[in-house]
Amino acid sequence: MSQVPTQPLSVRVQALERAITILSTSTPDPTWANHVLEQWLQLARQTVLIADLDTLKLLLSLLRNVSSQHPNWQIHLFQYAGHMAAIKGLYKQAEGFFEKQLSLTLERKNPTDIIEAQINLAEILIAQGQTDRAEKLLKEAIESSQKNRLYLPYVRSLNRMGGLYCQQRKWKNSQRCFALELTTLQTLPERETLDAFSRTLLELENAYTCHWLGVIQANNRRWEEATDFLEESLKIRQKHGSLAGVAESLLKLGEVYQQSGDWDTAISYLERSLDTCQQIRNLTLSLQALCLQAVSYYRLGKHWKGFIAARRAVAIGLKAEEQDWLARSYYILGQLQNKLGDSKAALNNLARFAKAFPRHDNNPNWIEPLIEVGDFLLSLPDNPSLWEQALECYTRAADLIELNQQLEYLAPALGKMARAFLKVKGLEGLDEAARCYRLELQLAGDLESVVLPVAVAVALRVEALTGIQSCAALRKNRNTFIPVTGAGHSHIRVFPF
Hints:
Layout: H1 9-24, H2 30-50, H3 53-66, H4 74-87, H5 91-108, H6 111-127, H7 131-147, H8 151-167, H9 171-186, H10 196-219, H11 223-239, H12 243-259, H13 263-280, H14 283-299, H15 303-317, H16 323-339, H17 343-356, H18 367-378, H19 384-404, H20 410-425, H21 430-447, H22 454-476
Helix pairs in contact: 1-2, 1-3, 2-3, 3-4, 4-5, 5-6, 6-7, 6-8, 7-8, 8-9, 8-10, 9-10, 10-11, 10-12, 11-12, 12-13, 12-14, 13-14, 14-15, 14-16, 15-16, 16-17, 17-18, 18-19, 18-20, 19-20, 20-21, 20-22, 21-22
């Protein structure tokens, strides 16, 4: 890549427009055509960096006008259309463009182009939680970049793999990737000979690393170290005008301050993230910022402000492609409406959460919301369809508990499932309910003083024994009315996602 020109962007775009007009009406020298393409690529890279969507849209239109005469240029058309969709948070659309980019690069068999396409597609798959395929693509990119001694693509691939492992909560794997990436950066043989834009990319890769190291520290509840890493990431991204990166860093800082219980600071960062998201028209990050903001307002007891933020989040979530964040928005909106005394609207939105919850997401942060929404739905009188949703919430929560080994939740969840089986299925649910109560009794004994306080474990054993005796009595008299106890709706806590 050549040096980044210092002329104003508008002047360079006008010059490029004239060149492409000539290109579209003549048969130019191939060398000059390649020079025009290089100028286009420089402008496209810069507009993606600063999230100048209007200029990027114009550039795509210009390239589209001559792509039929230069079929090889279609790779860049799909690539930057994908970047534009990604900046706006339209991940599914971006995935389609990057799939086409990868398909064309595989036909042309250029390793550098293939790796670039693999990284782009993997990154957008990670953003959608499709980590298995993303991992396969990144492993191929790492292997190919090592084989062809392509150091910058190697660094980028390692970084994305580290981020992927963070999303999978494989913290040791992610730290190994970042350690290897940092070692490679320090020993990069061609570092001093890189052009200005490549050096900018390296600095932004460092920002990416700092971002995820901050996430790792937050997972370890080392709040100061987490915010230090995230502030460093933010500083680098601000230096280079990477607005999409700035919005992401501000969002994560808000989330970390929320996790540490500093609700006011969290709201401040989330507001700044939201302002940046609106500049780049990113629906997905706007949705996340508003949802987290609503949670912070709830925690502060500012229910009306939280309601406004949550309502905006739901409105954006219905337009965006983020089913999990839409579900979270329904959840917090229902909680806030419940606090504001609108129980009917609260019920509607908590029921929507139960339907919208993404079944493929194995994040343990869903456990408490699922149980609490199940409690709420099961407490409602004479509504079998909502009781069935409650049972589904408990069942999915139990799956997540087992998968993530969050055993402190399992015994209470089993008792709730038992009551739900009886309420939903009546006498036909006796065997399933009795099985849940027996497991609850066993777990309460096994986990006492390990992950369950003694008083809680004793209460769970009493509940389980009572349930087992009730099920046995009901088997003897199938016409006996089934009493359902303990399903009353208590205060629903908001889990800070």
